[in-house]
Design a protein that fits this description.
Blueprint: H1 3-6, H2 15-37, H3 46-51, H4 53-62, H5 64-80, H6 86-97, H7 99-146, H8 148-157, H9 163-170, H10 177-187, H11 189-199, H12 214-226, H13 229-240
Helix pairs in contact: 4-5, 5-6, 5-7, 6-7, 6-11, 7-9, 7-10, 7-11, 8-10, 8-12
Length: about 240
């Protein structure tokens, strides 16, 4: 039975389901705790990346597919456990593999990791949310489910919404997992291409904040809002149509 199927209906918790949720929760807490306990954040800086640039390039040239596998696996882990470092990882992929191939590898890693975070949030919390707030959230849940692809695509494209937060909150809705995966994979393409292309000019970047230019953020925001137009149009048509 798929994980999504086990959490699609908020039944009374059983001993096995409680044990399973405890195991998943402990896994996430252990991964996040280990990240900060071993101070891995210290390695997630532009200066460290530049200092090890030649070593990373040499390893990639000599062990290309091992480098690709390690990159995707690291990206999946980082995204699944909602750890920091996605921007730096994307830049790293850009200068190691080239813009287009890196964008593909980023897409695989980010989509897979985001889906794991989505399913974990659904497994751990959606049953409780629906039992606690089901009646009050019914209209929101139904509206989100009907327009899930457009909503998610917009949330992925507009950089104002943190990637990890969209992963977790989407798990609390009734959006179909297939729709979630498709919208995520499509929605992160523009950002992935932008940052992997920037990674090719790594030596000219002095700060990660340089990448988030107002013009780029505005372009992504406009693109994201365009995908909301069909939803707005349908709502306006329904509002103007007599019952």
């Amino acid at each position: 039975m798929l994980l999504e199927d086990t959490v699609s209906r908020p039944n009374a918790p059983t001993t096995s389901s409680i044990t399973g949720k405890l195991v998943v929760a402990m896994l996430f807490l252990a991964a996040i705790g280990a990240f900060y306990f071993f101070d891995l954040m210290a390695y997630l800086s532009l200066d460290v990346l530049k200092a090890n640039r030649d070593t990373l390039l040499a390893f990639t040239e000599n062990h290309y597919w091992s480098a690709v596998g390690l990159f995707i696996l690291t990206y999946i882990t980082q995204t699944a456990f909602s750890l920091p470092g996605a921007t730096l990882m994307t830049l790293t992929g850009g200068f190691l593999f080239g813009s287009l191939w890196a964008a593909l590898y980023v897409n695989i890693g980010a989509t897979t990791g985001a889906t794991l975070a989505f399913l974990a949030a659904r497994y751990l919390f959606r049953g409780w949310v629906e039992q606690r707030f089901g009646n009050r959230l019914e209209s929101f849940q139904e509206g989100f489910r009907q327009n899930a692809f457009n909503y998610l695509l917009t949330l992925r494209l507009i950089p104002l919404f943190p990637f990890f937060l969209v992963n977790l909150l989407s798990g609390l809705t009734r959006v179909n997992a297939g729709t979630y995966v498709a919208a995520t994979a499509l929605g992160i393409i523009p950002g992935s291409l932008a940052y992997t292309f920037a990674g090719r000019q790594l030596s000219t970047i002095n700060s990660l904040s340089e990448l988030a230019s107002p013009r780029l953020l505005l372009a992504f925001s406009v693109l994201g809002l365009l995908f909301l137009m069909p939803v707005v149009y349908r709502k306006c048509i329904r509002a103007s149509t007599p019952e």
